[in-house]
């Protein structure tokens, strides 16, 4: 089969790989569509020691079963899935917080991912979806569930309803765009998104219907937002988030571009700021997101760009160099 393989920093190559097979409890999917995630781009840069050259990346997928060693999972059925392979028995899994599973592994990290014509995966990780759901929508389940999970965690901290809040999203990539679309659906009228790339600002303004600005030329007002979602997670954006948040507000830290930086702990403390972190999604979030996508909660997804798998390297280059207006590129094997 053909697979897009991470060979060295700044390079993925189309190669021939052996067909995967299903062991007991697993299925083999014929991949219909798979998204390029920011974490895949991070690995492509050589910045993720967990993802080593020789690996097939890709974990935002939809596919059709072509081999099954799991009862009830029949040939021809279509699924998206949870790329986190969880144990089901640790304290977090038992609590329903399987995104924090102490023994988790991951598709496209510890086992071959979905940048290929076929991929094996435990049937327990599959997420049911309407069989007529478009492959574009289904492949957006994973990133959309990340936005869904982040918003749900944030709602628990607010003193007033979300639709009353003035909200800032930092970053107009896929997670930022999906956050903006979800927040608008939830009734947030005073929504601002900060993004450096002018192509993405135009896309966000057109599809999410919110203010999209360049913080370099239109500085964010200090202490003016009730809620801030940092969908970048860089040192500079953490500083921006803490400067922009109002006393008593909530910052949801979603992105993780930089692993560490100084923040203004004095403001955090004296202004009673709630600072939250979020990691991916639970299986319940994935199921809820499939339903939301099927109901059109995230819009028509016309901002998503699709390319064939053999254009994968060019897609990574275009995303890296800011030449792509689309916040999400989907590859089709």
Structure, briefly:
By secondary structure, the protein is α/β, with parallel strands linked by helices.
Q: In the residues, how many domains can be counted?
A: 2
The biggest beta sheet, please?
7 strands, mixed
Anisotropy-based shape: globular
CATH homologous superfamily descriptor of the largest domain = Medium-chain alcohol dehydrogenases, catalytic domain
Percent of residues in helices comes to 25-40%
The total strand number stands at 18
| Number of discrete helical segments | 10
What would you report as the Rg, rounded to the nearest angstrom?
A: 20 Å
Strand % is 25-35%
Enter the CATH topology name of the largest domain.
Answer: Quinone Oxidoreductase, Chain A, domain 1
Annotated CATH architecture of the largest domain: Alpha-Beta Complex
Q: Write the element-wise H/E pattern from the N-terminal end onward.
A: EEEHEEEEHEEEHHEHEHEEHEHEHEHE
- CATH C-level name of the largest domain: Alpha Beta
* Contiguous uncertain segments of 5+ residues: none
Distance between the termini: 10 Å
């Amino acid at each position: 089969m053909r697979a897009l393989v991470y060979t060295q920093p700044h390079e993925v190559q189309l190669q021939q790989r052996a067909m995967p097979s299903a062991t007991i409890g697993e299925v083999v999917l014929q991949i219909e569509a798979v998204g390029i995630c920011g974490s895949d781009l991070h690995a492509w840069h050589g910045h993720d020691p967990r993802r080593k050259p020789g690996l097939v990346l890709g974990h935002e997928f939809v596919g059709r079963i072509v081999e099954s060693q799991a009862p009830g999972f029949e040939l021809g059925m279509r699924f998206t899935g949870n790329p986190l392979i969880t144990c089901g028995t640790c304290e977090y899994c038992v609590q329903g917080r399987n995104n924090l599973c102490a023994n988790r592994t991951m598709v496209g990290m510890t086992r071959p991912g979905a940048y290929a014509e076929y991929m094996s995966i435990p049937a327990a990780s599959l997420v049911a979806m309407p069989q007529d759901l478009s492959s574009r929508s289904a492949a957006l389940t994973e990133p959309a569930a990340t936005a869904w999970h982040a918003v749900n965690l944030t709602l628990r901290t607010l003193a007033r309803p979300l639709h009353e809040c003035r909200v800032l999203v930092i970053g107009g990539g896929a997670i930022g765009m999906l956050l903006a679309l979800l927040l608008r659906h939830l009734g947030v009228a005073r929504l601002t998104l900060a993004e450096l790339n002018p192509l993405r600002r135009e896309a966000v303004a057109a599809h999410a219907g919110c203010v999209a600005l360049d913080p370099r030329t239109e500085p964010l007002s200090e202490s003016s937002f009730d809620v801030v979602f940092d969908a970048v997670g860089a040192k500079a954006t953490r500083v921006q988030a803490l400067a922009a948040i109002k006393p008593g507000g909530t910052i949801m830290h979603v992105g993780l571009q930089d692993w560490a930086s100084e923040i203004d702990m004095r403001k955090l403390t004296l202004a009673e700021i709630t600072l939250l972190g979020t990691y991916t999604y639970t299986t319940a979030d994935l199921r809820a997101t499939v339903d939301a996508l099927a109901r059109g909660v995230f819009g028509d997804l016309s901002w998503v760009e699709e390319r064939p798998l053999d254009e994968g390297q060019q897609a990574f280059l275009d995303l890296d160099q800011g030449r792509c207006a689309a916040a999400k590129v989907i590859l089709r094997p």
